[in-house]
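During the reporting period the student researcher (J.K.) took over the structure-prediction task from the postdoctoral fellow and processed the backlog of single-chain submissions. One of the processed entries is reproduced below for the supervisory committee.
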Amino acid sequence: MSNSPRPLPRKTRARLDLWRSYRSYQYLQAGRDFQAFDLVPALGRVADSGPVWSESVETRARAFEEEHLVISAHDHLSLRPADPSGFAAYRRQGRESIPYEGIAHSGVDLFFDGGPAAVSMIRSHTSWDWDDAVSDLAMRRADIAHQQLVAIVTTLEEARRARAEDRVGVVLTLESASPIGNDIDRLDLLHGLGVRLLGLVYSESNQLGSGLADTGDAGLTALGRRALRRMNDLGIIVDVSHTGDATALDAARRSSAPVVITHAGSRALWPTARMKPDEVIRACADTGGFIGVEAAPHTTITARHPRHCLDSVMEHVERCVELVGIDHVAFGPDTNFGDHTAWHRTFAPLFGKDDKDTSASSGLPAHERVEYVHGCENPAEAVGNMIRWLFDHGYSEEDVAKLAGGNVRRVAASVWGS
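J.K. obtained the following structure tokens:
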């Protein structure tokens, strides 16, 4: 195999032409209108961060990406500060930079963007404040409106149109409905702002139900049941990635539309609350939903692969396929552009965590602490490497098409309409 760099795919070249070196908020003056931070590069933050694929696998994957609508069910399209000590100040400014160059190189056609709102700390000192969440969503829309590469989409037709124009579609999401408080009508406002997928609960419980970090999960509250109905009526996809198990099962029983897990893994492979037990994965699949397998550091580890890497992530993919079938599994890497482990260390206390899941007291099998997940370091490479891994392991194009977008597209069509 030649060591010379491969030429860029046609789709990437076209998207770089649309990007035109735009940087977030360049329509304003740094230092006068906002504080500029030294940010990580959108590409190459970590040298040799992923595998090198054979020419045959690379050729097949590129042809696939040219032919199919490739979807990430959950990523964070955010550039982080180069200095982790600046994370909190960066977030409090409320101007999360979008990594347009990395998006152009990703090969992904449609991202479900978790955005910055999990740590909305602009006016509030805690997460999930309503004003902060709305500010984050609106600020994201303002920045995207000033460039040509990324298009916010609210329907599959808009996603298809964006791809035909070599643009990248982005679906706005929130990982928790906590910002609505007890006001169900705020769900309508989120829909009006373009949110098309919403987590019921993040790790800490809210007025709708229980989070995975809490005990005493009793399922959805009366308010949670009303919120679920409203989401079904509005056409917002219901996500239970961070809910407690009983709350997830209750949502699956009561929803009139598919319920999804956008970013998690199999608890049978790695025994943490962050992973999902078989009964929850099956319950979501039974609604027509899917589980998106994630790759955020120190999540989808396995006993066979105790050092978190692409192979351990894909072991979770294969375990979920074995459990519920290939029609109910997707890719939800949950990555960002920056030092993800440092990000976790900084913000874990906000969500009742101590970032000590690797300690002996956690009860987990022995595993290695990593600084990044090899093969899934950021959204520019994660989905592409997952596709290439599948081809390298003998998967058919039909099966890869389901995992790399088809299953998500089916759910979106069911909830949003075509």
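The committee noted the following: Confidence is low (pLDDT under 50) at residues 357-361.
J.K. will present the remaining backlog at the next meeting.
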